[in-house]
Amino acid sequence: MFLPVMIWYVIFTYWPMFGVVIAFEKFNAVKGIWGSEWVGLRNFRQIFSDPYLIRILKNTFLLNIYGLLFGFPMPILLALCFNEVRNMVFKKITQTLSYLPYFISTVIVCGFALTFLSPSTGVVNIILNKFGIESIYFLQEPGYFRSIYVFLGIWQGMGFSAIIYIAALSGISPELYEAAKIDGANRWKQLCYITFPSLIPTITIMLILNMGSMLSADVSKIILLYNPTTYETADVLNTYVYRQGLLGTNYSYATAIGLFQGIVAFILVFGANLFSKKVSETSLW
């Protein structure tokens, strides 16, 4: 049973990693990986001299910081709310409804956003017009892009991300709650002194793993939402790699950016794990 999985990973995950060598070449599709000219670190030097580097790094970090500040706590709060619901029928229905957006295609989610935020027929602008406020071109204004992107990410992923916290909550011994009731602890005190502290190890692990995606973004969502007028805040490393590699056929430079992205992600995860190990007993390794 394990052999097919291992073969799949070798073919589709580990074998393609050898392609990272083109980051050190001036890749020519005709000559192939092994026949292309070797240029050493030239592509990496180009990254640090790229006039767009500061902008795309800033946008990438800000999108992820906003997502971490507003999106990371939401699954935890949702899981805590589900844990307090005693009506099992209502609990199962609401849990199912919260999971559904995760399985909706990103194209459809972005279609919802375009429809709701349309300056002429969008529900949001219709409501604003009712109060005498002029229509806002949300998707043409750079200042609104980050909020829209983060909100869509929270709405789509909050319920599914809560599953791991719900699983952690199910592992808490009922005897702890029974002992707390005997001691006169109400629901709020049980939440503060039993439920939430029991989630701390899981929260720590998830936070460490999230550090690895601080230089990543949902490229398909951004491509579907952004346009040249919002490049100022919407252009990130992933979209820049997309334009350089797939649209500009500059495969070596795009690969170098991707490798740089991976190295920074590893450093962030390693640093977060080291910090967690020093201040607590929870870590990835």
TrEMBL record:
Keywords: Cell membrane, Membrane, Transmembrane, Transmembrane helix, Transport
Coiled coil: none
Every ABC transmembrane type-1 domain range: 57-272
TM annotation in the entry: 7-24, 61-82, 102-128, 148-170, 191-209, 251-275
GO BP terms: transmembrane transport
Membrane association type: Multi-pass membrane protein
GO terms for cellular component: plasma membrane
Cellular location(s): Cell membrane
Keyword Methyltransferase tagged: no
Classification via Gene3D superfamilies: MetI-like (1.10.3720.10)
Domain of life the protein comes from: Bacteria
Family: Belongs to the binding-protein-dependent transport system permease family.
Descriptive protein name: Sugar ABC transporter permease
Taxonomic lineage of the native organism: Bacteria, Bacillati, Bacillota, Bacilli, Bacillales
